[in-house]
Amino acid sequence: MRLTRLAAFVLLAVVFVSTSARAAVINYGNFGPIPPGITFQNVQESSGTDPVPLYGPPAPTPIGLDFDPVGFLAAGSGGTTDITDGQLNFAVKTTNTPISQISLFEGGDFSLNGITGIANQASVFAGLSMRLTITEIDNNPITPINVPVSIASFAANSPPNQFGPWNLGVNKTLDAAIASLPHTIGVTRVEVAIDNDLTAISQANSAALIAKKEFQVGVNTDISQIVPEPGMIALASIAMFGIFGRCRACA
Length: 251
Prior knowledge:
This protein is mainly beta and 251 residues long. It contains two helices and twelve strands. A six-stranded antiparallel beta sheet has the order 1-2-6-11-8-9. Strands 3, 4, 5, 7, 10 and 12 form a six-stranded antiparallel beta sheet that branches.
């Protein structure tokens, strides 16, 4: 029960993190157009807890943007707690095709160490939230439409001496948000705000570490190809086991 309450607290911190608390901002600029005409505008990252970069510069892919985080981790030992907070903000713009779905996937690995036979000595958490605001339909500016926030979380605690992969994924379709409005193309611009937290909590004689090693943004412009949530989770799990295997091989 304690772990559940702590996980809920950490996740709420992710969802309601104040933008005024953010430190320096890195603006990576624009990326695209990526076929069939997707442009990522004003991609920037910031953090309220740590120096940036945390996500690092993105690379365009056939389905969106790929980040390879370096140093995006939280670590605690001997009774300390560490929280690493990161944000990504950008807009997705198209011209002749609709933005039907935005998806996120992230993952990495974690470790928990302590004294054998003593439970709940160390804990790790990861939280993810995505806020979408539709600002254009059929290439025409509109009064912004706020889409309900998508959230996901991961939590693990001792028994000690655990090591393994973790991953999170969220996706949100946009067609329902404009179903009652007249349109011929659909959503052609949406603003994206992403909040991420990693937390490591330790007690005496224990240590906890959680690291983010992969972060991907996907954009779907074809409603017939929208990925249902269970399928996305299964694909994410397969992908992360591959990443975890590479990490173990490099260790």
